[in-house]
């Protein structure tokens, strides 16, 4: 049976949603496609290649080849929007954040283009090159980390961990969080605003 790269990626993403990242192996992909594992090597050499391809597909659902601010849109609004779209892209698949965070640029072309677009548009906005690089690295690390936590720990587990700490500062903070009906979306944006405010102070 002849297979193509698209079939491999689609099958791997289905496995990801079903079994998580640890459950995605070349052997399982081959089994689901009813081929020998060796048939995959024409398209992917190892699991890292597969992860890169998965990340590329995952991000391409949200990002085009050329990401630029809309006419009149400033760097801050554009970057905030990019971060929200990146989060949504990763949330679309189980452990999507682990896939993207673990991808390399060689095959994950969409990720590479996104990083380049962020740095480029910060430079255009007048950022020194060092600050543009650090801003990009910091903000992507925040988005990856937030979504990894979001996907790894369902709300009930968070509640149990916090409530199990008794009358601690953590427990008090969690109860206040719950009382105000803060959502993951609100928490994400609040953390993002802290970073953006810090960046503006260093311009």
UniProtKB/TrEMBL annotation:
UniProt KW keywords: DNA-binding, Repressor, Transcription, Transcription regulation
Source species, domain of life: Bacteria
GO MF entry, a single one: transcription cis-regulatory region binding
The keyword DNA-binding belongs to this UniProt entry's keyword annotation: yes
InterPro entries, per database record: DNA-bd_HTH_TetR-type_CS, Homeodomain-like_sf, HTH-type_TetR-like_transc_reg, HTH_TetR, Repressor_TetR_C, Tet_transcr_reg_TetR, Tet_transcr_reg_TetR-rel_C_sf
Domain HTH tetR-type: 2-62
GO BP field: negative regulation of DNA-templated transcription; response to antibiotic
Record-linked Pfam families: TetR_C_1 (PF02909), TetR_N (PF00440)
The keyword Coiled coil is annotated on this UniProt entry: no
DNA-binding region: 25-44
PANTHER family (alphabetical): HTH-TYPE TRANSCRIPTIONAL REGULATOR RUTR (PTHR30055), TRANSCRIPTIONAL REGULATORY PROTEIN (PTHR30055:SF151)
Protein name listed in UniProt: TetR family transcriptional regulator
Taxonomic lineage: Bacteria, Bacillati, Chloroflexota, Ktedonobacteria, Ktedonobacterales
